[in-house]
User: Fold these one by one.
Assistant:
Number 1:
Amino acid sequence: MPCYFYILYSRSRDRYYLGHSCDSLIERVRRHNSKHKGFTGSTADWELAYFEEFDTKEEAYFRERQVKSWKSRKRIETLLSEGSIG
């Protein structure tokens, strides 16, 4: 089963969310857009902006940590502009 590193974008918050999952990305975005406690629960306009597929959960998590370590919106937006979706 493939695992993913993904980036979501919310227009209303003008924020990105980075995560990883081995679930279907469609289902994962749906859950982010449901009312729940947590960073993504306050709005329901999260859209999949980018993803990378990996063979293992560990690889996807490593990539998430790597991109989060950048602490740079500009670098994330550069990644998005070079990506295949968004």
Number 2:
Amino acid sequence: MSADSTTASQGLLDAVIIGGGVSGLAAAWRLRSRRIVLLESQDRLGGRLYSQRASDEDYWLNFGAHLFPAPGGVVDSMARDVGLETLPITGSMMGIAYKDRILTSGRVETYPLRLPLPLREKIAFARAGLRLQRAVARYHKVLAPRPGEAEAESRRRRLAYLDDKTFADFLGALPAGTASIFACAAHRATAEPTSLSAGSGIGLFALVWAGEGSLIARNLVGGPSVLPEALGTALGGRVRLGAKAQRIAPTSGGTQNVEYLVNGRVESVEARHVIVAVPAPIAAPLIAPISLRASESLAAITYGPFLSMAILTNEITAMPWDDVYALATPGRSFDMFTNHAQVLRNTSERAPGGSLMVYAGGDGAAQMMTRPDSEIRETFLADLHTLYPETRGIIAATKIHRWRLGNVYAQPGRHELQGALEGPHGEFRNVHLAGDYFAELGSMEAAAKAGDSAAQHVELSLAQRHGSAPRMGLEDVGADGVVD
């Protein structure tokens, strides 16, 4: 991959993809037989798929998205194309740690009875949980696919589900302890219950309660970054790292000219289509010259921050969290505890060491990420040692990552923005949007599907308008990114 090569010798491209997260990568992968270039402003691909291998190669530090979808989807297809395979998570994903009690097994319906809550709180928790269970059942029925329904209409309908109130309004007034438990769940979507739409809050629980049938219950051995690294290697010179898109402008011939900054200089490339696959606040100014209405809707889409700390441990024996993958931790400085080594614990011999992550989302994360790393580390580890005293003395390394645009979430009224986002856009109908914000809940698969869908529209347009447009194999692109 090169950030230094010029694009002048490439001539007119079929498409420029802006953004190297999973959405942009899915678009580029779908169009890999076309004349394309992918522009990524950072020095790596993957966006929120970000991990680093530990020095011994057995474990990895994980900082962002880590739950991969089930086989059969876009992400799984890309992984298989580059020789990778995800493995099912066998550890508990619905555990909760409240005060001095850790629950990792049993039916979630029994949690109100088993947690150390006063009787008044138990009753309030049980009532809210029952209301939520009924809403989840309705959610599955209302959002089921309808024969003949266009995908754009289906998206708008899903986004409109209970979109007239917040999740806090739906739950009603709750005692402090119970409220903290539901707030912890909302923080998985990087939102507060008072800002998250009721429909999205219900959807979040529908996803979490899916259990063994969950669509996001798999891991990629080696860490999430293994996938974008492999895709980037396969795409080769089509990828420009350190290339920040600055402007999209239509030409008199109906194509689009994309200006980008690389190594301190402005370069440009012309293409028949542009796919903008960056977070909505970044996409908004880029698409403003093409569609002001779409730009305004993008600017109104909300993202929440999250703060993560990856932890390598050096224990030499089994630990009480070995059978736990994820644990909600209300009332602590972090909202989630995750055991990323759990996918490796399926052999008879338990290898030494491990990899953990703690995560904070929403307002608490926004406040904490202003502090220095040393203070964050001290705060997180103090709570981790209280949660699992066995972590004392086995912390080998920690690394903190701040995600200011952590995850997209829907506020009430979100569905009203959707019409302006559906494309293609512009006078020549050749600018397309892609990102996880097309779904009611942002996820890896939602982002990939949006990128893949945008690329399919590009392919259809190229076939209709230009006949058999020239295709390239990966061998046609040199190491410097110039078409041979």
Number 3:
Amino acid sequence: FTEATPYNPSSPYSSTKASSDLLVRAWARSFGISATISNCSNNYGPYQHVEKFIPRQITNVLDGVRPKLYGQGLNVRDWIHVDDHNRAVWTIIERGTPGETYLIGADGEVDNRTVVRTILELLGKDPDDYDAVTDRPGHDMRYAIDATRLRTELGWQPRYRDFRSGLAATVDWYRDNEQWWRPQKGATEQAYAAAGETVLGTPGPA
């Protein structure tokens, strides 16, 4: 994606996010509201809710539960560490041009299967010890961000350039901060079960 890429949401969830951007653009254009828009790639790092893909897999493994992978796990996401995202947003607030859009990405394209396998490896497990589950409706195959404008015009650069090392630090954080995520875990897994998440197969050993 670039700043000029037309919005083409695939789900009600992504449609609401696209609609919010369009509202901000309209207010800025028609009424002179001083606002910028930033669109980021997928975040990971500490303090992310356990319903999200990476913390859910980490906490599952910590609980002795096989992680869950949608479909074949070939969906690619452009991962960015939350600290890099936060710094980029602050850079845009301080130096961005009102009315403009900036994309935030860290060149971290990895498919979901690789993410799950890496989490298992980092926690000393067999990398194939996961379950394939029913895929999500409207699950896009690839997201990727061209953050050239942010880097050239505003001088921002990511600090977490190696996804594996950033993921290892994230695994350590969840391992060391169970008291933060534990109260949310049970309700999260119940919600997934209620939504009809069905195991499709067991690629690795039980």
Number 4:
Amino acid sequence: MRVAPFAISAVCYFLFNAAMFAGLEAQAGFAAPRRGAEIAVFAGNYLAFAALSMLQFNLVANWLVICVLFLFEIKWAFRCPWRASLLCALLVSLVGLGANEFARSLCAIAFDVPQSAFSNDIGEEGNLKTVPVALGFLLGALLLCVQRRVLRHGETAVVYGNDRSRRFVLAMGVLGYLYLCSILLLYYVDVNALVVKVWALKASVSVFASLSLAFYYAYRTAAVIRRSEERRLLEREVAEREHEGDKLQDIVRRDELTGCCSRRFAEARIDELLGRGRPLSLAFVDVNDLKGVNDAGGHEDGDRYLTCVAA
């Protein structure tokens, strides 16, 4: 077993792993990862890649195992909810798988060899798997960096925060991932046909394009729903403040005991009517012997006397 190709692919995978961590922290709104998590995840995943290759697992099983590893690793590293971790693991795995398939198909065309030359049987003489794998991880790291540059305004966190949008992207991701896994079966067919290689090349591009459109649609939907919720909350807050303002105004312009309007309100109302040139009448009412009622029965009887007259 040659060490140099594995060392090169390890460096490329380290770049992919670093781009994944940077993207998740910047876009998904996750907390900073645990100390040493990036190195631990890189070592664990690359050892898993190497072990699966040496055990000559089928490529489909290989990538399914890696997706499950990503699920638990992202959950552990970022302490995020399971549903967010599942979507992140699926999307990261899909980027890695799609980039690897694109690189393998491109190398198969460039080297004019069948795709079986890049199977998981690294013990087979002439197996060139490490070349497209290294290129695939480099391409995957580049795609994750481009995604981080394009999605700079919390779009990913918006999608994660909406159940309907998250489920839609998850469903599209699962379909795309299963489709790419089915394309992996071509690497066990010893056919050196250009049309087959171009078909596999097209599959990766199609999945990336369809998933990008699905994510854009999910983001727009989630953004509209979030703005609607924010508008409803704002309207409710404004209505509550208006209600509080009306209550305060009512307290200011009305006498607490009798419920009659206060003198300040009456003066303001008179000024308003006079300013508009409206006719008005002003009547004064004298309450007979209020002092005598207060002296005889106390202020409580006096208050009842006033409320009865006001009523």
